[in-house]
Amino acid sequence: MGLVLMLGLIMTLYLASFAPLSYGYDPLDPTGNITIKWDIMQANAGGYSVKVSLFNYQLFRHVEPPGWRLSWTWNGDEVIWNMAGAQATLQGNCSRFMGNLPHSCEKKPVIVDLLPGAPYNMQVANCCKGGVLSSLIQDPSKYGATFQMSVGAASTYNASNTSSLYSIPANFTIELPGYTCGPPREVPPSRFTSDGGRRWTQAIGTWNVTCIYSQFRASLTPKCCVSLSAFYNSTIVPCPTCSCHCQGLPGARCANSSKLPPLLQLPHDVTKEVPPLVSCSQHMCPIKVHWHVKQSYREYWRVKITITNFNLAKNYSQWSLVMQHPNLRSLTQVFSFNYSPLDQHGTINDTGMFWGIQYYNEMLLQSGDNGNVQTEILLNKDAGMFTFREGWAFPRKISFNGDECVMPSPEDYPRLPNNANTSSFFRFILLNIPCLLILMFML
Fold it and tell me: Do residues 39 and 51 touch, judged by C-beta distance below 8 A?
């Protein structure tokens, strides 16, 4: 029992080191957020029509299935009469109405995106992605979603108070782990173009709601770890023990993959992400990233990157990998992955984003024989900075799907053999004997 308590204390202190992430600031994407735009398009005595848009302004963090679930709290007795491009999950109690019933009478409606292939009469432009939002870098054409709705007051039939109709709802949420939304903020009205740009119209009023992501709020434990190896050292540095959890501690769920049935049935709510069930390991992480320094050529060096899915309950769609390494500015070629640099420090380009190729490896399958994706990259040997010494060949930071991975301690990085410096010195002497002899005669 004492050992378990000690492990629990160590795990708590370890997780506390991630506390700064609770502020929602990511230095690699300092302005990243999801913005909800509320445009009132038309209004009358009985209600108004509104266009609602969600935009993912994050460079490398996307929204994957089951997708966003937008909700808010009405300030008055508003109801949603009809919708296009999305739908409310509950109609609620509409018994006070006669004849045609509203689409939703909920005080706090929950709105979900329509699935691809929805009937045309229910669609609007930029809808029907199943709640999935791509990051700005991966697919700029799919980073937004839009729906329209008609809002009225439940007391309209009684011709009573409608003063609350034009007040913007409060308490917006998108029901995604780690996201916190601020209050609505009025901004200049949105403008819309038509007739080939020859005419512009604008909304009656526009409000923005900004939602910020925090890794610490999303999960109390990390979601990935990193292991390292190199051709010049036989040691493989594994993920740190208990990187994401410790076997035997509360909340740790793992299974021996060799003893699982052919079809794993996991009861869960289809509207929520399945809790991780990982293959039992010493690191207990759903995702492991392995960086292997594979070869050294005269002008280039080659690295192999492997991402392995240890999660028995999830496929990762549209995955992304962000790395910090000083030699990324000299990246020459990437095989099997897409790549884009992240210029965060002006002329210093030491950060880049990798992601899968569509229809080839953009899906990281569940744990198993096919549960990995890999690539090799070539980096130019920059004469001003290149070296294999002191662990320089390994990345400083790695993030998977926007969540920072646990790195091994720099003290454990694979090092050059002890005689490497001596060997390099003798190799230099042998190659430069003619020059040395000439120098001796000159003296």
Answer: yes
